[in-house]
Every structure is written in structure tokens, then in C-alpha cells.
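G., before I forget:
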Amino acid sequence: MSHDVIPPADAKQPVEADRPIDVASHAPRRGMRAPLAGFLIVMGQGLREALQPKRLIVSIAIMVGLGAAIAFGARAEADRPFRRDLLFQIWEGIDLWVLQILLPLVALILVGPVYSRELRQRTMVYHLVRPVSRTTVFLARFVSGVLPAAVFGTLLCLSIIAFADAGAPPEVWTALPLLAFFAALVLGAIYCTLGAIFKRGLIAGLLYTFMMEVIVAGLPGNIQTLSVRFHLRSLYHGLVDPAFAERSEGVRSRIDGTMQSASNPLVEAVPFDPPQTAVMMLLGIALAILIIGVTHVRSRDFALKD
Amino acid sequence: MSAAQAGIVLDRISKWYGEVMALNEVSAEFGPGVTGLLGPNGAGKSTLIKLICGMLQPNLGQVLVNGKTPFNRPSVMTRVGLCPEQDALYPQTSAWNALTYLTRLQGFSARDARMGARRALERVGLENDLGRSVAGYSKGMRQRFKLAQALAHDPDVIILDEPLNGLDPPGRRTFSELIRALGAEGKCLLVSSHILHEVESVARRIVVLNFGRVLADGTSRELRRELPEFPLTVRLTTSEPAELARHIVAIDGARRVEHVDGGLEVLTHHPAEFFDAVSELATSGTVPIEAVTPMDEDLEAVFRYLTQ
Amino acid sequence: MAVYARGYRTYDGDFRGPPVAWTIFREGVAQALRRKGFRWILNITAFILLATAGMIYIQVIVEKQAQRLTGGMVRAQLMELDQIIHGFHATTMFLVSLGAVLVGSGLVADDLRTRALSLFLVRPIRPVDYMLGKALVLPALLIPLALLPGLVLWLLVGLWQPPGETWTFLQEHSDIAWNVTRFYLVGAAQLTGLLLLLSSRTPRRGLVIGLSAAILFGGPVLRAIGRLVLGPIGTLLKSLDLPNNMLWSFTRDRREWQFEGQGGGGRWGGTTGEERWLQWQPDPTVIYIVCFVLLAAGLYFTWRRARSVEVDA
Amino acid sequence: MSIVSIQNLTKAYGSRPPALRDVSLEIEPGVTGLLGPNGAGKSTLLQCVLGLLPDFDGEVRVLGLDARRQRREVRRRVGFMPETDTYLYEMTGIRAVRLLGQLTGMPRNEALRRAHELLHHVGLGEAVYRDVKEYSTGMRQRFKLAQAMVHDPELVFLDEPLAGLDPKARDELLKLIKDLAVEHGKHVIWSSHILPDVQKVADSVVVLHHGRFRGRFHLEDLAPRVGRFHIEAEGDLEHFESALEAGGVTVIGADEGEGPETGGGTLVEARRGWTVDVAGDDAARKLFAIARESGVRVRSLGQVAEDLEDIFLRILRDPESD
């Protein structure tokens, strides 16, 4: 029944909308949180975002898949006639593929956007009007990116070892997780800070990787030590070389000879630092970068204009 | 926090992005009650709001929110709530989780935050969409989420940037009433909007910005009175316009008379004398005057004159 | 003498403009040509073509000198031509793929992201018009990259033959022209299909660029894995290396001719790795299947996008 | 002759509750407001009329054409201004509107001429040569209006046309749309949540709620309530209210008015408004008389009429009729 003319109304009184609004009741409110508490809340949310079931499964699948691919690649290479033994392939494969390509990629994808996503989604405005300092938000988001990146990096490395089952030395099971963690920490710090400073963080990250981790790291001479890759490789070789050398003749010959850089043999090798100094350098770089990130975040204007 | 410091103080604020001047020596104080913030696009409204929320740092002058400068000082934000203009969404999480997270940042315990978030979402009418992710929300529902987020922690200073944007009529009326009620409660509300009649319905005091400067600050009546250069237009509804016109012209206050359908429109520079004369004329009954309606005393007219 | 209407005027013109598909196609091509990136690709390809032509010209002169001196055979230089064209295509293959990705990625994705599709859908257009218009953009833009260069070289060499022999030379070597055309057709079908398929699935252009670039430049990896895996999956994997499909369909006839020994000791690929080398190449019919499937999928999803109602009032 | 006639239109998306339930309505020439809360089915109705959702039950005729079979003819005569933020990628205003004109079948050069004319008419000036992406909200709304009118449609759908505009731009666009409807006889269906704008422009209003047609309303029928007045008085107001009651006037309610203050040197008298009921035919004069006797000045006096928002909210609260 559709009625054409609307019946005249009675007096004009405030309309009771279908959802009653009770203004009086409101929850008790407490003052500003201790910084650590704020940190844990923001980090918790970041982890919850990263470890969503769908993304979690996809990430694990990719990591294990890549690990398997590298392992099989190494095995395929190993069967070719006059090629060096499988252990050598694994040893060099990790150095070439994992350290120089995949771990930076994991850091770029998982840690890079973790802070800049808040800017892109403009949800940073909610944090700016809440009693949580900008430093806490930046560091908490960063850590909520580093942890998954470290875990997935470890998964990648260990899946290589597992699929290759080349009788790798036990030291590997401790060294690789450490390596994955430091890669995620240092490279993650760089990408996260770049994401915070530049509007197109991803491109800045790629530019950095290309300039520093490819060109500078590939230059002969001590300039290599400027790149993060050098220190990561120092740590890697420092931790695993003795164990691998025992088991693999190929590794031994490579070590006894000049330590040739895996990527371009022409470059006259730079001797690696001992693992302790490598760890110090990596931590130092990460700290410096994070300080730059924090000072930027504290002092910048957040216009959040699209 | 003493009552004197409650609210917002802007002391000769200037702000520019590169060479673009966004605010030019803006001074204003916002105490308890609802204040309307108006101005054409690009007048500096959103810059002002971001300065108050501590997102931007003024190049000159000082911003005080509840007595302290908000930039990089999160403790000020415990009592501040902002409903931003642009859509700010957490696409992966549900509305309830997102709001619980944000409310916990306000210093509430997990349980309090969860309860407060739920109540806030119910308050804005999202009770049966708590579990759904905000990405699937319609424009109106996203706006309600933003409002819930601004009110969940019961702030004293609430800044609303285009609060009714995208809401349907029932929603608009509900939230207008809510804003009025919060203002009546003594909270300091700043409502920035382009829809003047809605601002007029919630705020008595209006601050008008244009080209980064404060053009006017007061109730729309006061502002109209302070614009003497614009004569007041009054429409007199009558069945005998010609006859009425003869009398009106005789009144010295009447500057110009125009015939419009249904009566006359009269411009006058001396409203007091003019209205007295009209009253007298009406009571004398020489000519029937059914209605007297001032046409440009409302906020839209005031705004038009100010930003001409 | 009159004061004419100043405000809105009605339109009393006709509505018999060109077919809608042509309009969408033309706008797509115009928009691509406005992009600096694509124009650079055209310039570089033209430059490489010039260089190749120059190289041939010098070689022809040298051959002629040698011929006049030794009366030797001219055949060597002729047989070189298709290898030169193959070499040209191999070098510019990167540009062809890049051009296709740059232009193709935005074909439908831009309309989705900017919601321009809802402005199109309320126009009197059929989904098939939208599909056709969008589908023809890439083939048209690939002509100067993948078809013309080969034909131009072929014609050039024909022209540089001693007078009177040009026509006979061209006819005699018409198989090269066919190879170039087949190279172009396979490329156009595959790239259009792939790009339309990806572009109509997501509004995010960056994602489409990333994905299509990964598929095109990751092709050799697929082919390598395909080599390891025997049986139908292997052949399928081998034929997923789209750029290689194009190059392989260019050289296919030459290969058989060469392989059956007619050509004698052709310098092509030598004899030792012959057997192994063939293993790497996909089966030609599978290439055509892949072309058809990709193109059909791309067209279908573009058509479906134009049917779905994006008008959210 | 009705512009759009709909007979028991029902449309359900798959198994979900039907978006439109047996809607039968006529949209008359002129400007019609299409109102309804979120989820009332406005956009579904619009898509059925534009023939974008062909699988609906019921009969829809637009400008005399069948919306299902003659979809493309309908769309040639109809313009649409979407609410969503729509632009064309890497295209200037001119190129975009010309393309959209061509898509309605206009030849290329005619489309370019029309694009220039329309973009100028909506007041975009030099910005026509800039990318639509860089347009401000106001300019984008003008662009959307221009693209809706480029093929000179007889009927144009506007969805929240004034969204995001500042007051000056709102007035300008309102004038443009009114001019199209009044001077050029274009039929406009205006869907909006901001009712005062609709009230300023629309001739009649159609209300949808929960997928049902809840009623049509002509704006000029907003008849003032007989005997209901709103009077605003200025001066010494204490006993004005009692004087009113003494004069046999029943006071319904009072606004909170402004107290007297002597800010800025000039004496500002108190001022307040009352809503009253007055019997008798010469009510206005009676009120003027009471005001004069109690020495207050009448600043405004007029019969109270219901505004569109009250009617709309009242319609929504009506119990479901069937």
C-alpha cells in the first residue's frame, strides 16, 4: 500500500532516532601509559597484522618453497660432472642467494612497509592524537616487522639445509637463525627508516639496495666494508667456515685460496672480519639508522595530505 | 587541571608549507561548548586542526591544548579526541579490534578498552557490525567508526572535521544531537564543516577562516551586526504589496523596496527604526502584513558577506 | 544583430560518431604514446634497427667487394639475414616486453582504480565494445616494435640486391617475412592476453606491472624447470616462457630446414649441442595453445569487468 | 507524462533480502529528490533504471523507453553524476569529457566542441587543460557535472552533487543545476542526504526505505500549519511571554535567545524567539499588537512550516505499512 499524500504532521518536536544515544555513561579513564606499555600495545597490533592466518600461510609457503628451490638447484649443480661437492654448493648458495638477495628481499617486503603503511593508510593520525609518543610508535612498529622477518628468514635458511640434507655441520642450526635475525634487524632498520622518511619508501629501499648492496659491496678494496652485506658475510663465514671446511674439500680449497667473493670472482677479496666485530658493526649500523629514524619521526610535520 | 586552562588557546599562530602560507597570525580561544569552524576550501581549517592535534608544529606563535603545547607531547592527548576528515582505515582488522587497540593506547586496561570500544561503537549505531572489517564498511559506517574512535575514551576536547560527511538524515540528526549534548556537558568541541545550516544547528559561536586569517569570531547574530556595510534584507509578506510599498517608502529607515512574489523585500541600514515602523504599521491594520522575515541574518548570509 | 544564449546550449548534432570500440582503441593508443617511457622504447628500438641496417649495409658492400674479387658465392650473406633479424629481435625482446608491461598494465586497471569504468558503463556502450577497444591497443603498439623492424630489414636487403634481382630475392625469401609476422602475431596474442588478464583483475597498476614483469622476465626459470620435468607438464612449463615462444616461433622454419641438413654446416648453434638445444625449446603447437588460452582469458575477464556493475550510487 | 515509470520492481542480489520490494512509482518532470537512509535501495533503483542490472522483475520505462530492452537508447538520453570520487587516469579535463562524449556516439570533433562548452559552463576555466587527478574536490564535482551533460541528456541523475563543496561552490553548483532544470527543461533526479539542499531545488520528493517506496511529496505542499507562528522579539523581554499568554496566545516553546550585553560600546538588546499558537484569522496583527503594548520590537514573525527533514524523518518512523 503506497500512500501518495503524506498525512499532516503534529508539532515539530525532536525526533527519537531509531538508535537511542545515552550520553551520560562513559568508561573510567586513566592518564598516559608508561612508554613500555604503549610500546607493547603497538607492537602487539603490528604482530597481529603481520601474522594474519592468510598472510602467514602464504609467507611460510614462499619461504619453504624458495628454500627447496635453492636446495634442488644446488643438488642439480652438484651432479654435473666436474662440479664441486654438494656441501660447497650449499655453502656458496647460501652466501650468494640467501645473504645477498633473499634476506634483503624479506627485510624489504616485511619490515619496509611496516611503518609507512600507517602513513599510507593514514591511520597514523589515530596514533598522533593518542598519548603514545612518536618514538614508541616508530620503534614498536619496527620491532613488529623485524620479528616476523627474522623468523621467516630463519625458516628460509633452515629449509635449504633440510631439503638439501647434505650432512651440514650442526653449527649451521645456530648460525643461520642468527644471520637471519641480523639481516632482518639491520636491513629492516634501513628499509623501515627509508619508508618513514620518503613518500615512496619502496623505491627508496630498492635504490639503496642497488646502490649500496650491489655496487658498493661489489667494488674492490676496503670500500666494501661500507655495505651491510660485507658484515653479514663476515658473520656468516666467521661462524660456519671452520665447520664446512672440515667436511667439504671444495670449501677448503676456496678458503685456502684467496677468499673469492661469490658474486664476481675478478674482485680481489677483502679478508672478512671476525664474527664478533661483524656483530658489533651490524648492531652499530642498526642503532645509527634507528636514531636517524626516531629523530626524523619526532621532528617532522605529519600533514598526511593525500 | 584548572578550569582556566581547559580548552584550546591559539596565540598568533602562523604556519607555512614551503612558500605556501597556510595560516597567517591566527589567534583564538576555544572553551567549553561547541564552536563552529568555517571557511572555504584551502582557508587553513585542516592545518589549524592538525596544529591543535600536535601533528604539525607552528612556524610562529604557540598552540596550547589544556595549557600545554601538543606538538610531540603525547600526555596532552589523553583528553583529546579527533574525528579526521579523510578515511583512516585498518583494512585487515575488525572495527571492534581496531577500536579496542586504539582505546588501550589511551591508557585503559584491556578489559576497559574492550568494553569502552564496544559501547562507543554501539553509541554510534554500529552494534551489529562490530565483527566486520572496516574495509567492507559503507561511507556512512566508516564515518561512524571515526566518530566512535573520537569519543570512546570520553575526551574533554573533541575536534570533529566534517563529522556528518556521508551520514544519512537520521544519522545526521542523531549526531547533531550528540554534539549538542556533549557541548552542553561542558566539553570543548570544535566542529569544522561546509554545511552551514548543520553547523548553525550545533554551534552558537562561529570562527570564520579565509586565506589563513581569522575573519570573524562570534555568534552569527553578532557577526551580522558587525557587518553594517551590508544592509539588512527583510521580506514582508502581504496580500497588497502596492499599498504596503507606499507606506514602507515613507519610512526613512527603508533604503530600497522590491516587489517579489508574495510581498516586498526591503533593504534597510537602520533595522531598529525600520522594525518599529513596521510593527506600528502592522498593528494599525491599514495594510495586512502576514509575516516579517529577515533574509540575510542566517549563517549562510554572514558567511557569504565575509568571504565575498 | 541579436544577443545570443550565453548559458547552457542544447546539442543538436548527430550521434553517428565512429563505433565505440574504435574510440576506446584510439584513446588507448593515444594515451600510451603520450607516455614518455613508451616513446623512449620506440626511440631505442628505432636506433637499434638503424644500427642493424647499417651493419647489413656494410656487410653487403664487403660481400660485393669480395664477390667481385673472388667471384665467390653470395649465399653466405643471405643466410645471415634471418640470423640478423633474429639477433635484432633477441636484443629488442626486452624492450618489447617492457613496452607491453608499461602500456598493458594500465589498460583496465586504471579504469578500475579511478572508477572511470562507472562513467563508461552509463554510456551506451556494450561490454564487447569495451573489450574490443582495449584488446586492440597492445597489438597496435607492438607493430612498430615487433613487426615493422623485421619487415623493414627484409625489404632493405631486397633493395640492396643488384638491380632487377630485388623482387626475386624477396619472393625467394618470403619465409623470413612470414617468420616475422608469426613472431609478431604470437607476441601480440600472448602479451595482450597476459596483460589484459592481469590488468582486469586488480585496480592496482603497480601490482600488475610487478606480476607481468615477473612472468615475462622469469620465463627462463620456468623453461629450465620445464626441462627437468618430463611429460606434458614439462612441455607446458617450457612454453610458458613467453618471450622465448616469440623468438622460437620466428626461427622455427629455419630450424627444421637447418636441422634436416639441407643448409649444410650452418653456423647456427653448431652441431654438438644440437640435440640438447632442442630439448630446451617448447613444442610449437603448445605455443599456439598457450597463445589462444591467454588471449581468450584476457578477453573474457575484460569483457566480464565491463559487464559487472561498478556504479555504486 | 512521467519521466520514469516503475511498476512492481523487485530486485534481489542472490539469496540476500531483496534490495527493492515491489516498488511502483512515477517520477514526474522537473527536479525530483530521491531520498532514503543508507541501504534503502536508492542505488539499486538507479542501476535498474539505467539498465545496468537487467535481471530485475517488474517493468521500468524511462523517457518512454523500456529500460531493459532499449538499455542503450536510455543511456544515450540519460546523464549520470556519480557520488564516488571519479576521474580518468592521466587525462586532462578536456580529453576526458571529449572521450565520454564520444562514448555516447558523438563524433570526435563535436565531442571536443561540447567538452569545451560544458567545462566552461560549469566554471572550470583554465583548469580544463590540467589533469583531472589534480582537481580539487570542487573542481572534480564540476567536472562530473560537465561529463554528465556533455551529450545533452534529457534526464540526469545526480548523486550527492554538492558533497565536499564549500559554501560558495555549493551555491554556484546549485544555481547551475537549477538553471538546467528551469531554463532548459532538463529532468533531474537528485539523490542526497543533505535535505535542505534538496528542499531548495526539488519540485517533488520520493522516499525509499528498506527497499520500499514510502511515498511521494510535493514541496509546495509544505503548507504552513494554520495558526502556528514563530515570533522573535527584541528589547525588554521579561514580561513579554506573560503578555502573550494574557492575550490568549498559547506558547509552545522558546529558543534560548541572546541576553543583553553592552559589548563594543553600542547597547545590544536581548533577543529571543517563541513558537506560539494563535487562534483567529487576523493572528499576525494580534501578535504585533501584543508586542507593541509590552514595548518590545518584533524582529521576525511568520507562520511555521514543516521542513523536508521533519517530513522525511516522520516517514521513516511510520510503522511498516504492510
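Residues 36-70 of chain C form the longest helix (35 residues). The CA atoms of residues 179 and 250 of chain C lie 5 Å apart.

More on Monday.
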